[in-house]
């Protein structure tokens, strides 16, 4: 059996009344177990979706339905340990991101052990996203699969359509719970069990049929009243105070600076609200953040080395790709799904708004090799981040200008394409061409930034000598 690797991501959900344009958004940093885990961006056509699925990391296998939808996907670029499709939008404008590795506890595992032969992160997107026609249906399909086959790990998964965002926590080996995020709310979810207060009788919750009985029969609830699933099934460890809670704290601090909270608080809220309408750029900032303007910034100039290393930042060298899956409500359905995408550590990249209703994906984003090659956006983005990390403050202003200009230029192309897309004889083919233009903008501007960084850094090389020295 292939060795299993656990990633450690950060997830954000935004309801349609909380966003600046009335769209729903689910977003996640896909963080690898190591610094490099090459990713690619593909479109999976219905005829290319397997009818029999066999996992690589376990013995799990399943027969799949005969009527899959097409979907965008960001799988691993190197074969050998599974698909890891990660995220995408299908042709019915349903979005899914999987997974956020989460925590559990010994009480939960005692009553419902993990299944080593069950399904896991490598499988989930590929066996769910092509077969769902709403976010709620995605929750229900994944829940039934977990109940039947079990899992060898606990994960958080998100679904969205034009109306709803759902967050799903898997529980121990065969159980699960999900919450519809209120339209006027947002969520920041790090690598912990995230759902807190849970109403088993609400129309906005779903769960395994026997979940409440499991809790009651086995005395799993530590609270005298109500059901806080994070208390029941999650963890509250010292590691959480260093690795998980600070990320939720910083994201909530960004959206709600008026609220005073502690970065080590084990009970930071799950569902949050802010008076500011949330834009794609806000989501990107939080998913790129490293505790800017606090004592914990690894790039800080006045804080100590101990403070810099105290908490795990959201933006990190293990970021492989960042996606923001946006389903818009102010445009026709043919152009509503936007798969925003950026590769590599988020300190030196920019998200690009790729249309999801396409036939193919741009060559720079699709053709990722196992090792560095020119022409690959993944490897170019990693080069920028690696180079930039050596002197962040020297390059910071240039990166900010690059990101603003790239996203602005891409937004303009998108706005112009929105106006004419439905008048084209073949809308899918046209949007595929637009995506190629968007990729060209990102690739060209990334290379321009690299050139600027070289021109800034070359005079500072230590290996220099002149007759005047």
UniProtKB/TrEMBL annotation:
Enzyme's top EC category: hydrolase
Cross-referenced InterPro entries: C69_dipept_A-like, EF_Hand_1_Ca_BS, Peptidase_C69
UniProt GO MF annotations: dipeptidase activity
Keyword terms of this UniProt record: Dipeptidase, Hydrolase, Protease
EC assignment: 3.4.-.-
Reactions this protein catalyses: an L-aminoacyl-L-amino acid + H2O = 2 an L-alpha-amino acid
Family: Belongs to the peptidase C69 family.
Name of protein: Dipeptidase
Organism: Lacticaseibacillus jixianensis
């Amino acid at each position: 059996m292939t060795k299993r690797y656990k990633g450690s991501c950060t997830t954000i959900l935004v309801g349609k009344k909380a966003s600046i344009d009335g769209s729903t958004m689910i977003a996640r940093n896909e963080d690898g177990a190591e610094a490099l885990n090459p990713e690619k961006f593909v479109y999976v056509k219905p005829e290319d979706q397997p009818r029999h699925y066999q996992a690589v990391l376990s013995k799990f296998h399943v027969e799949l339905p005969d009527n899959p939808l097409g979907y965008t996907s960001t799988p691993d670029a190197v074969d050998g340990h599974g698909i890891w499709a990660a995220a995408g939008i299908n042709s019915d404008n349903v979005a899914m991101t999987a997974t956020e590795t989460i925590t559990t506890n010994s009480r939960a595992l005692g009553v419902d052990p993990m299944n080593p032969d069950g399904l896991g992160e490598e499988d989930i997107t590929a066996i769910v996203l092509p077969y769902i026609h709403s976010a709620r249906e995605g929750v229900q399909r994944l829940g039934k699969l977990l109940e039947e086959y079990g899992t060898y790990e606990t994960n958080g998964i998100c679904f969205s359509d034009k109306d709803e965002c759902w967050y799903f926590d898997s529980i121990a080996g065969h159980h699960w719970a999900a919450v519809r995020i209120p339209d006027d709310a947002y969520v920041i979810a790090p690598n912990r069990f995230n759902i807190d207060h849970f109403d088993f009788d609400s129309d906005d919750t779903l769960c395994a049929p026997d979940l409440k009985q499991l809790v009651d029969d086995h005395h799993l609830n530590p609270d005298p009243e109500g059901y806080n699933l994070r208390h029941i099934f999650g963890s509250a460890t010292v590691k959480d105070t260093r690795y998980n809670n600070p990320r939720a704290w910083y994201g909530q601090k960004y959206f709600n600076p008026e609220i005073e909270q502690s970065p080590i608080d084990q009970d930071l809220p799950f569902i949050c609200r802010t008076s500011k309408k949330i834009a794609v750029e806000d989501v990107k900032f939080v998913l790129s953040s490293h505790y800017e303007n606090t004592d914990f910034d690894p790039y800080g100039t006045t804080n100590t080395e101990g403070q810099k290393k105290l908490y795990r930042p959201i933006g990190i060298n293990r970021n492989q790709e960042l996606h923001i899956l946006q389903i818009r409500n102010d445009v026709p359905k043919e152009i509503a799904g936007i798969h925003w995408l950026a590769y590599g550590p988020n300190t030196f990249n920019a998200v690009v708004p790729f249309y999801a209703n396409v036939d193919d994906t741009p060559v720079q984003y699709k053709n990722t090799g196992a090792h560095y090659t020119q022409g690959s956006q993944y490897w170019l983005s990693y080069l920028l981040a690696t180079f930039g990390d050596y002197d962040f403050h020297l390059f910071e202003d240039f990166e900010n200008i690059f990101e603003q200009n790239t996203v602005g230029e891409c937004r303009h192309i998108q706005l112009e394409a929105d106006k004419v897309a439905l008048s084209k004889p073949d809308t899918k083919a046209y949007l595929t061409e637009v995506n190629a233009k968007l990729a060209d903008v990102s690739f060209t501007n990334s290379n321009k930034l690299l050139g600027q960084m070289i021109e800034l850094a070359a005079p500072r090389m230590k290996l220099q000598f002149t007759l005047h020295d």
